[in-house]
Specification:
The chain is mostly helical and about 230 residues long. The chain is about 70% helix and about 0% strand. The N and C termini lie far apart (about 110 Å). The mean pLDDT is about 85.
Length: about 230
C-alpha cells in the first residue's frame, strides 16, 4: 500500500474520531467545523476533501460503526434462527441478539465503541430531521427482521404492542448508555458508571421484563344509558 492512501486513511480516521467525540459531548448543532478541525489537527480543506461538508461527515460518523453493529445483530439472529429451525426463538434470545451486541459495543472503550454508543444514545433524544431519516434507512432491514422474530416469539401480543415495547426498550438502553446523570440526581450521590458490563447485567433483565409485561388493560366504553321517557297520562 502506498504512503498516500495510508496518509488519507489516517486523516479520515482522525477527523471521524474527533467529530464523534465532539458530537457526543456537545451535540450536532453546537459542534462547529472549526472545533472538529482543531481536535483532529487538520484544516477545513481536508474535511471538505474527504467528506464534502458537515452533513456528510455526520452520516459517515454513524455509518462507520452502525453498519458493523447492525450486521452483527443480523448475524446473531441468523445463527439463532438456523439453530431453532422452524420453531420460534425465545424472547431472551432476541433481546440478547439486538441489545446485547450494542451493550458489548458500549463496553469497548479502547476501540471507540463506548463513545459511539453514547453518541447514538444522545441522538435518539436530540435528533435532527436529516439524522432521523438517515437512521431510519440504516435500521430498516434490522427492525424488519427483529420485529418478525418478536411477533413469532410472542404470538399472544399484538404487533402494535410489540412495536411500542421495542420503542421503550430502545429508549431505556439509549438513556442507560448515554450516562448516569439523572440517576445521580435521584440517588443524591455520585454513582460509578465505569463498568458497562455491570450496567448490562442490570439492564438486560429490565428490558426482558418490559417485553414480557402483561398487556395493558383495554378501556371499556360504557354504554350510554337510555333516557327513560315518562308515559303520557291517559
Amino acid at each position: 500500500m502506498s504512503a498516500e492512501p495510508k496518509h488519507n486513511q489516517d486523516t479520515c480516521a482522525r477527523i471521524l474520531d474527533a467529530a464523534e467525540l465532539l458530537f457526543m459531548k456537545h451535540g450536532f448543532e453546537a459542534t462547529s467545523m472549526r472545533m472538529i478541525t482543531g481536535e483532529a489537527g487538520v484544516n477545513l480543506a481536508a474535511v471538505n476533501y474527504h467528506f464534502g461538508g458537515k452533513e456528510a461527515l455526520v452520516q459517515e460518523v454513524f455509518r462507520r460503526r452502525l453498519t458493523w453493529l447492525n450486521q452483527e445483530r443480523l448475524r446473531a439472529l441468523d445463527v439463532l434462527e438456523a439453530q431453532a429451525g422452524a420453531a420460534p426463538l425465545k424472547p431472551h434470545q432476541i433481546v440478547e441478539a439486538f441489545f446485547g451486541v450494542a451493550l458489548r459495543m458500549a463496553a469497548d472503550r479502547a476501540g471507540g465503541g463506548h463513545v459511539f454508543m453514547r453518541l447514538l444514545g444522545r441522538t435518539y433524544t436530540e435528533p435532527t430531521e436529516f439524522i432521523r431519516k438517515f437512521l431510519a434507512e440504516e435500521y430498516a432491514a434490522v427492525v424488519t427482521r427483529f420485529k418478525a422474530a418478536l411477533i413469532k416469539a410472542l404470538p399472544d401480543v399484538p404487533s402494535e404492542e410489540i412495536l411500542w415495547r421495542f420503542h421503550f426498550m430502545l429508549g431505556a438502553m439509549s438513556y442507560a448508555i448515554s450516562g448516569t446523570d439523572a440517576l445521580q440526581l435521584v440517588a443524591g450521590s455520585s454513582l460509578d458508571d465505569n463498568d458497562p458490563a455491570a450496567m448490562a447485567r442490570r439492564l438486560m433483565p429490565f428490558l426482558l421484563g418490559g417485553l414480557r409485561a402483561p398487556l395493558p388493560a383495554t378501556p371499556t366504553v360504557q354504554p350510554v344509558a337510555k333516557r327513560i321517557r315518562p308515559r303520557n297520562s291517559a
